[in-house]
Amino acid sequence: MKPSQGRVSMTGNEAIHLDARLAQLGVNKQIFVDALEWAAGQARMCTEFDAPSMSGITFWSRANRYLAERLTDRKYLAEHLRGVNESSSPWKYTRRDSILRVVHPAATHAITAISGSGGIGDLDRSVRSKNPKGRTMAVIVENNAKFERRTGQGVIQSRDDIEFGGELDEMPLWFLLYERTAAGLAAELSLPVKMEGKYVNEWSERIPLFTLPDPGVDIELLDAPDDDNGVHIPVQFTG
Q1: Using CA atoms, how far apart are residues 86 and 180, in angstroms rounded to an integer?
Q2: 46: how many CB neighbours lie within 10 A of its CB?
Q3: Which residues 6+ apart lie within 8 Å of 9 measured at CB?
Q4: What is the distance between the alpha carbons of residues 81 and 93, in angstroms, rounded to a whole number?
Q5: How many CA atoms within 13 Å lie on the side-chain side of 31?
Q6: Can you tell me the distance from the alpha carbon of 227 to that of 139, in angstroms, rounded to the nearest whole number?
Q7: H/E element holding 15?
Q8: What's the Cα-to-Cα distance from 119 to each of 9, 51, 59, 72, 183, rounded to whole Å?
Q9: Taken in order 153, 158, 161, 162, is the CA torsion positive or negative?
Q10: If DSSP codes are grouped into helix, strand and coil, which group holds residue 96?
C-alpha cells in the first residue's frame, strides 16, 4: 500500500512546493518512508519476552539508524538523492547526549526522529513531542528560535566543531515526528522553536509527509532521553 500525502489534502502545487522544500534540506519523502517502514519491521520482531517498552525503543532507534546509514553512504546519495545532494557529500552522524542526529554536509542543520503527539501531518492541528525532553534538548530548541530570528545562511563549521564542539547544539535541529494513529503511521518534518515545561510544542515550520499503513506494533516509548537523568526542571522559553 502506498503512503498517503498526509491527513490534510494538498493540491499538486502544494505537494510540489513541499517536495522542493525537502530538497532544500537535502532529503526527500522516500527516505523517510523507508526509514519508518524498516523501523516498524524491526519493532515487530520484539516479543512478550522483551522489555515492555522494547518495541518503542527499537522503532525510535532503528528509524534514526536507517537515516544515519543511508545519509552517510555516498553511493546511496548518488543513487537515491541525485539532484538533492548534488555533490553526493555524505552526511555526518552523532549520538552525543543520546540525541541521535544526522548532520547535513554543509553543517547548516541536523535531523532526528522522535515520536510526536496530537495532529502529526495535519497542519490544522497542534502537535508536541510525545515524551518529556531534558536540558540539552531545551537548549537546542531555544537555539532554533534564535536561529530563526537571525538572517543569512548557517555558519559552516569544521569537522571537529561538528563532532566535538558546542556548535552542534546551536545548529538548527529538525524533528522527523511520527505518531501511530487510527489512520496509520503519520509523519512530518518540523522545526521546533519553543518548549512548555518539558515538551516541545511550537514550531516555526511544519512539513507534512505521509500516513503509512498501521505498523501493527506499539511504538510508545520514552525516546531520546538526552541528559534528563531524572532531574525535572520546568523550562519555558518566551521568545
Answers
A1: 34
A2: 19
A3: none
A4: 18
A5: 29
A6: 11
A7: helix 12-24
A8: 14, 29, 20, 31, 12
A9: positive
A10: helix
- Joined grid coordinates for residue 170: 546551536
H runs (alpha helix) in 72-194: 74-80, 135-149, 159-164, 167-170
C-alpha cell at 234: 520546568
Which residue from 104, 52, 13, 26 is spatially nearest to 217, judged by alpha carbons? 52
Measured at the CA of 161, the angle between CA 159 and CA 166, to 5 degrees, comes to 155
Q: What is the CA radius of gyration of the chain?
A: 17
> Amino acid letter at 199?
Y
Domain limits of the chain? 12-121+133-222
Q: What is the DSSP letter of 81?
A: S
CA 104 to CA 90: how far, in whole Å?
A: 8
Residue 169 sits at φ, ψ, to 5 deg, of -75, -10
- Would the pTM of this model clear 0.85, i.e. be above it? no
Ordered per-residue pLDDT tens for the chain, 239 residues:
444 444 445 566 777 889 999 999 999 999 999 999 999 999 999 999 999 889 999 999 999 999 999 999 999 999 998 777 655 689 999 998 888 999 999 888 999 999 999 999 999 999 988 776 777 888 888 888 877 655 333 334 444 444 545 577 778 999 999 999 999 999 999 999 888 888 888 899 999 999 999 999 988 765 444 544 444 334 344 44
What's the grid cell of residue 99?
Answer: 540525541
